[in-house]
């Protein structure tokens, strides 16, 4: 299929694009370049050529999903047959400080995208949701039928979009929609060519660990050590980004054959604490990560990990990489960046 991939030059987007190419799809990348740059496109094309993939099947449009006319142009020019929607703001703490920005970008942008899809007769849709929709309404492992009660504006935008998608599929049986509730994507492609490259101060654990290990930042801030967890730090279900990308391809294949609306968790089904991630990184890579305990971050929950039975049984999805792989591959990507900066 010709697949429109919004947020296609982002961290997850580049890995999903690679997985789609590996599966023989054409990929139309759409990104507004707010959190990335066109240099990432060159890295993606280099990776495609190195892996023997059809780099000519990559097309890029700079556009914003909130811009209806820009979306109409992209659809008319590229004629996608399906959409994988990753574009959106995603920092929990920032969403608490800037809720209007998050509702306007995430919810309005998705509505505009769906409107243009319907106008253009495109009805297959995979949505990047989040495990933050679960909040603290139930205890992990979270099943897809667990109550949802997100504790921050970011999570609430994802839950609102899920409700919109469910209502849309119920109102129009042409739509085939899958929402993927990501847990915590980390790691990088094993080639070291693509990975997580946040602008400014990282909002997620692993890229912050990378920058501290690389000497770019003095120390890691661990947000709270008084949670009801074995070592007091937050526990999350970390999933390798390459596994996550493979889950998108399986979900796209499923959506293409099944009208209606479905939700799947994508995680490993087990949690790791912040301190466990730090220790694993240090052991795997032989590089110290200085850290300091600071106050809890608004909107965070103590423990979050997935029930993975539904994705395994329905999609045939099972995560293959472990935390050791995630730490090793993330550091390979960071070391390549350091080498390139030294060479300049």
TrEMBL record:
CDD domains reported in the protein's UniProt record: UDP_G4E_1_SDR_e
Q: Which residues form the NAD(P)-binding domain?
A: 4-328
Look up the record and name the pathway of this protein: Carbohydrate metabolism; galactose metabolism
> What does the entry list under GO cellular component?
cytosol
Q: What is its EC number?
A: 5.1.3.2
**UniProt enzyme class:** isomerase
Q: Which reaction does it catalyse?
A: UDP-alpha-D-glucose = UDP-alpha-D-galactose
Q: Which GO terms describe its molecular function?
A: UDP-glucose 4-epimerase activity
Recite the UniProt keywords alphabetically. Carbohydrate metabolism, Isomerase, NAD
Q: What is this protein called?
A: UDP-glucose 4-epimerase
